[in-house]
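Our consortium's second objective concerns turning raw sequence data into structural hypotheses that experimental partners can test. To show how far this objective has progressed, the report includes one record in full. It was chosen at random from the queue rather than selected for favorable results. The single chain below, 183 residues long, was entered without modification.
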Amino acid sequence: MDDLITSPERRTRRLPRSITAIAVALGLTLGAAGIAAAASPSPAPSGKAPAVAGASGDGERMGRKLGHRGDKHRGDKPRGPRGMGRALHGEVVVGDGKGGFRTVAFQRGEVTAVSATAITVKSADGFSRSYALTATTKVNRGRATVGDIRTGHRVAVRAVVVDGRATAQGIRDVALRPAKTTG
């Protein structure tokens, strides 16, 4: 017990609490900024300058007024089958809403063959694919039929792929859209 009393005290140097608090706050701020930067979407690789809200906050973007729905329906959103932009063809895996997954194929191109049971589409890059047609295949959202599609028409096809076989669920044929009337 005498050893404890006679031993010299060891002094450790401690930083003042204010400096420690500042260092912790700075670390948290930098960490949050890093997480925010990683979570933010990267800008689209387009030739256009990004849209920036006007400094006055008056709802102008790139020199035009925002409407009731904003820029959502003004061409700033990717177009094509299910928002796939300018993609010609591809396959994606999506949830089926029941805890499983399904493969969805899409293609834009020219009809090279069409029958009551199948349609073949060739894209601008030379890719060609045949799609099975069923009684549930919708053409122009049900406003047309498969019998209206002709070879040479420009179409966009959306299909479900099961065991490598693509079955068209929807076809959009630009040639079958009704002409706009004036007046």
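The partners drew two points from this record. The radius of gyration is 30 Å. The longest helix spans residues 17-39. Both points have been shared with the crystallography group to help prioritize constructs.
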